[in-house]
Amino acid sequence: MPKIAIIDDDADIVEALTMLLTAKGYSVVSAANIPEAITVVDGEKPDLILLDVMMDEPDDGFYLANKFKQKGVKTPIIMLTSVSKAVGYEFGKGQVLPIDDYIEKPVTPSVLLEKISKCLKTK
């Protein structure tokens, strides 16, 4: 059973994603901030990371994605974001972030499951 780490400070999103993913047979761990995220990824060794962009600080997700890469973490990362709507940033154009994919919030379950499946197959 693949393990997915949800890194998001919104408890409602974590709960909804956890219910969806466990119903589909995934094991789920979560973290709500940078220190927790590093502990979870280092200790739990998830097969995939769902990473929110904005947590305590507006760029925490960017920081974590880069931190994981610096530490040699090879786990696929799907970034969850509404930041492009807020600031006009376009993901995927000249991608400089060490992520495998991104999803605009609000997350559609079918799109999320499809992207998770794709990332886990190419892992």
Describe, in plain words, how this protein is organized in 3D.
The chain has 123 residues and is an alpha/beta fold. It has a single domain, classed as 3-Layer(aba) Sandwich (Rossmann fold), CATH 3.40.50.2300. It is 44% helix and 20% strand. The protein has five helices and five strands. Strands 2-1-3-4-5 form a five-stranded parallel β-sheet, sandwiched between helices. Helix 3 links the parallel strand 3 and strand 4. About 5% of the residues have low confidence.
Compute the average pLDDT: 88
Indicate the CATH architecture. Answer: 3-Layer(aba) Sandwich
Strand order of the largest sheet: 2-1-3-4-5
- Reading off the top of the CATH hierarchy, the class is best stated as Alpha Beta
Helix coverage percent: 40-55%
* Main beta-sheet annotation: 5 strands, parallel
Q: Please report which band the strand proportion falls in: under 5%, 5-15%, 15-25%, 25-35%, 35-45% or over 45%.
A: 15-25%
CATH fold annotation: Rossmann fold
The gyration radius over C-alpha positions equals 13 Å
Distance between the terminal alpha carbons, to the nearest Å? 14 Å
The general outline is globular
Low-confidence stretches: 85-90
Instruction: Let me know the number of strands.
Output: 5
In sequence order, what are the helices and strands, one letter per element?
EHEHEHEHEH
Helix tally equals 5
The CATH superfamily is identified as Response regulator
The count of domains is 1
Query: What structural class results from the helix and strand content?
Result: alpha/beta
